[in-house]
Amino acid sequence: MGITVTLALTCFGFFHCEETEPYTSLPNIIIIFTDDQGYGDLGSFGATEFLTPNLDQMAANGTRFTHFYAAQAVCSASRAGLLTGCYPNRIGINGALNPQARNGISDQEITIAELLKSVGYSTGIFGKWHLGHHKQFLPLQHGFDEYFGLPYSNDMWPIHYDGTPATDSSHRKFKHPFPPLIEGNQTIERITSMEQQDRLTARYTEKAVDFIHRHHEAPFFLYLPHTMPHVPLGATDEFKGKSDQGLFGDVIMEIDWSVGQIMSALEELQLKQNTLVIFTSDNGPWLNFGNHAGSTGGLREGKGTSFEGGQRVPCIMQWPQTIQAGKVCNRLSSTIDILPTIAEITDATLPDHKIDGISLLPLLMRHDAQGPREVFYYYYGRNNLEAVRYKHWKLVLPHISRSYQDVLPGNDGIQGPYNRDTVEMALYNLRRDPGEYYDVQALYPDMVQTILTLAEDAREELGDNLTGRAGSGRREPGRLGMGE
Hints:
Helix content: 10-25%
Strand order of the largest sheet: 10-9-8-7-11-3-12-13-4-14
Number of strands: 22
CATH class of the largest domain: Alpha Beta
Shape: globular
């Protein structure tokens, strides 16, 4: 069971060839997934006014992926893509499921946790789930042995962003209950105050470290999807006022501390060398929250858009036995590629049904390898194909988009307005123009046609509401009552 890798295989310039002792043990796997952390919100990706020393050390020990994409630029869809290796619209998950939702992840889908359980892993999740809050959708029914966390976003509660209770029965927040904190399948408390929100990062971390200690003698999969820095922001007293950027910076510094706690546990138990740790975010920053939002690092727009600031996210991978230290990978890659990568590493059997991810193992073994992915589809909404990337080219397709341009954001936790943008078709060369400033389709008409052909392939398989296409390869989500 598993793979046998010799260090001789990695003599592409980052291990000495005389080190040829084989190792056969399956690696531990940890995925740390933050919420609304932008491309520019890590020190190694250019952040200012707060420090992320543990994440910077992780980058020094591993590889930074600079063209890495969330599956979609919104909470539930993004998590569905990560855990199943599928574009979320393929499996019927879109948007951000709210407390009134009666759908969730189908029991016909195979998650990373189920994949790894099939080859003997212990599995645990500590943090935000957001793939359905009814029991049949919760983590224990989808491959996880342990769960502690919130079933959906921390702003889905009957409190406005200014901290006042939602008393207007016509407002969507009025219908939200106080979110449950779930352990296993049971609600153990309700989150009713900001003081409880302040402790979430620390509580998830404590549970995660305990899980590592309890399962260190056999391979484990730890999924740590932080609630933060999604608004409302919360941090413990130890981190409030610690950064020069205000509460947002404080929250990121506590997440960085959390990463440090995980790394310290691995060091203590001598697990660091054979543990694959992946750190990334579910989408870009929610920019209309102003100083309570992050940075895109100069990329266009933010969360909820198919421009680069919405979907390109920071990613660091560390696995000292295999991944080259201190390097940068500029190859196109995505969260949907993580499941097949893990499957190849562990020799686990891929699902029988179609997935969209491609194994990144060649990039992990050799950072200058030819990237396995050349095409990425930017879907949003119910099933709108809004852009296609091919190599370093991106064709933005006509659609209506939220926009953060030409409107002032809010501040101190208060949400500012959105603008509404009627987007016309445009071709961008992301190598020269990552900010998507100038349309070059008149200069490269052949590339436009090449990418339009790829868009048609996607519409045939995955559909496209913008052009009235249903798609032949889509599957239904789970619905309340199904499978019980």
